[in-house]
Design a protein that fits this description.
alpha/beta; six-stranded mixed sheet; five-stranded parallel sheet; 37% helix; 23% strand
């Protein structure tokens, strides 16, 4: 079987290699490209804790002049992989919600004494599909978002990938975010016939990531928003 992996590099190659190691074909087509845009100076006035919903925010802050100050703050993360990345980056107090953004909000609220009298700083992407700020606002917790990276959409699919898609040459496409799904749909629709949509099978990391595609093709979501769960879904279909 052959699959198309659409997540950004370098994770795209890592996932494709895991699929190849399982005895299947995998093509790499990263649809989003990471670009760090962190401000040179972060306003840390009254900041009592940090929130990370993606390890890419950590990549954007690598080498930042205030990184040592940030490492001293307690950190709340949406998932275990991001939590592990925080610890590897030298953050000392890290708690993971092991779930989605709603779980993250619940975790922060349950530990609100940690940030009593202060606010939460949220280093984030420019384009976001969830609203942790609104969740925390409901509980009177001040959350300040600072954009530290953006994911630039690819302008086109590689010719060989487009040809294989149009010829029905993939048994499935791996989708890692809502924005990736939207980009994929846009690029696929610009050059492939409509029947390609109905015959294509997509495997998404979350229910939210399935939404842009659900009206066009068969889409299945992983049991939980993690690469492990997504790969189990993909390989279980082989």
């Amino acid at each position: 079987m052959r699959f198309l992996v659409t997540r950004p590099q370098p994770e795209c190659k890592r996932t494709a290699d895991l699929i190849r190691a399982a005895g299947h074909g995998a093509d790499e087509a990263p649809l989003l490209e990471f670009q760090a845009v962190a401000p040179a100076q972060l306003d840390l006035t009254a900041v009592s804790a940090l929130i990370f919903t993606s390890r890419r925010a950590l990549d954007a802050l690598a080498g930042h002049r205030q990184l040592e100050l940030l490492r001293d703050l307690p950190v709340f993360t949406v998932g275990d992989a991001t939590a592990a990345a925080c610890r590897e980056a030298g953050f000392k107090r890290v708690l993971s919600a092991s779930g989605d953004v709603s779980s993250l909000g619940e975790l922060v609220v349950s530990k609100r004494r940690t940030i009593e009298g202060g606010k939460v700083l949220y280093p984030a992407a420019r384009d976001r599909s969830s609203d942790i700020e609104a969740i925390l606002r409901e509980y009177g917790i001040d959350c300040e978002t600072v954009v530290v990276y953006r994911m630039a959409a690819a302008g086109a699919l590689a010719d060989d990938v487009r040809t294989r898609l149009c010829d029905g040459g993939y048994d499935g496409v791996l989708i890692y975010s809502r924005r990736t799904a939207e980009t994929f749909l846009q690029l696929l629709g610009s050059g492939c016939p409509d029947p390609v949509f109905s015959g294509l099978r997509a495997f998404a990391i979350s229910q939210q990531a399935t939404e842009p595609l659900s009206g066009y093709m068969r889409v299945e979501a992983a049991d939980e928003p993690s690469e492990k769960a997504l790969l189990e879904l993909v390989l279980g279909a082989c």
